[in-house]
Write a structure and sequence with these properties.
By secondary structure, the chain is α/β, with parallel strands linked by helices. Helix content is 48%, strand content 12%. A 3-stranded mixed β-sheet has the order 3-7-6, with helices on one face. Strands 5-4-8 form a 3-stranded antiparallel β-sheet. Helix 4 (39-49) packs antiparallel against helix 10 and helix 11 crosses helix 13. Bound molecules: iron/sulfur cluster (SF4). Residues 151, 154-155, 199-200, 205-207, 210, 212-213, 216, 218-219, 224 line the site of iron/sulfur cluster.
């Protein structure tokens, strides 16, 4: 069924572009990276907006471009300052990749002008390459993210079941490519993403306000909320025990994550009890906190324990453990949840 719907949409593509562009011109959100545009600002916004809400990104983006207004300034920035500026935005590998990208761009005569060129740079996948190249350089390549998948599968009444978002992206890629506006690809891509983000919601889409409603098979069949069909993600539950230890001077014991940990490398967190305190007393548990990272659900129990000679001996043996005074604490980069929890616990134990 959706094949013929897709063909019919492609046949009507000039009308589809016309109404979509008109709606985008009139109603797009005013965002700082749209008000003043440059390839650098587009790149920063695309990195920050991966897996993060736009409202959360705006203040980070403004501070970032004020501190480092172009690729050169970012390339020359200190890595610790870059990580600190990202504190609270999550998925910290993005910050390291963006920093590395700026350094690579500086080695080139000019940034790449096509998606094929961008995809060679650190942290740039197919989606980000298409977004940057189309928005900043007019490369006619389709952006396909979760929002675009939702809009296109609904427009074509595509009821296939996809095993995950990646499979859905792959499945709609040919249609997305057939629909791209070769004259204004950047605005077209942004319009489709904007439609998914502000009108074609996963639940309760605002079909009555939708500029492309006349093209929509799912709306005609009253089946929009049932599309796209994605298999539920497997969720992993992880329980961790953390330590909250302060020495006589009030310094706090922290662990700096090293190596290539996907989410935490370079960040500081309260240390895990494993290897430091084999046996914990339930009476010492002062908090139980929860957080989610992608499909992982963490439950972190925090124990306040005294400094003992045995603990000091074990701390000295691990180069990633260190004591941070309250003043140092403010300068370190902690993961967002741990920054909040440490603040609460320090206040309680003051
Ligand atoms: Fe989405 Fe409704 Fe518009 Fe169809 S009509 S694209 S379901 S908002």
């Amino acid at each position: 069924m959706f094949r013929s719907e897709a063909e019919s949409l492609i046949e009507r593509v000039p009308d589809f572009h016309r109404v979509l562009h008109a709606w985008y011109d009139a109603y797009h959100r005013q965002l700082p990276w749209r008000e003043v545009t440059s390839p650098y600002r587009t790149t920063v916004s695309e990195f920050m907006c991966q897996q993060t809400q736009v409202d959360t990104v705006i203040p980070y983006f403004n501070r970032w471009v004020a501190a480092w207004p172009d690729f050169r300034a970012l390339a020359e920035a200190d890595e610790a300052a870059v990580m600190k500026a990202w504190e609270g935005l999550g998925y910290y590998r993005r910050a390291r990749n963006l920093h590395a990208l700026a350094r690579e761009v500086l080695l080139m005569e000019a940034p790449p002008r096509t998606a094929d060129g961008w995809i060679e740079l650190p942290g740039v996948g197919a989606y980000t390459a298409a977004a940057i190249a189309s928005i900043a350089y007019g490369d006619p390549v389709a952006v396909v993210d979760g929002n675009v998948v939702r809009v296109l599968t609904r427009l074509t009444g595509d009821t296939r079941t996809f095993k995950d978002n990646g499979a859905a992206v792959k499945a709609v890629d040919a249609l997305a490519t057939a629909l791209i506006d070769p004259v204004f690809p950047g605005d077209y891509n942004q319009a489709l993403m904007e439609l998914g983000a502000t009108v074609c919601f996963r639940k309760k889409p605002l079909c009555a306000l939708c500029p492309v409603r006349e093209f929509c098979a799912a709306d005609a069949r009253k089946s929009a909320e049932a599309i796209p069909r994605l298999l539920p993600k497997a969720v992993e539950h992880i329980a961790l025990n953390r330590l909250f230890v302060r020495d006589a001077a009030g310094a706090l014991l922290l662990r700096r994550y090293a190596g290539d940990a996907v989410t935490l490398s370079g960040l500081c967190e309260l240390p895990e009890a494993t290897d430091l305190v084999p046996l914990l007393d339930e009476a010492d548990r002062i908090a139980v906190k929860k957080r989610a990272i992608t499909t992982r659900r963490y439950t972190e129990s925090i124990y306040a324990i005294p400094v003992t000679p045995e603990l000091l001996r074990r701390v000295r043996r691990d180069k990633n453990l260190f004591w941070a005074s309250p003043a140092e604490l403010a300068t370190l980069t902690l993961s967002g949840p741990h920054r909040k929890w440490v603040g609460e616990l320090m206040e309680r134990s003051a």
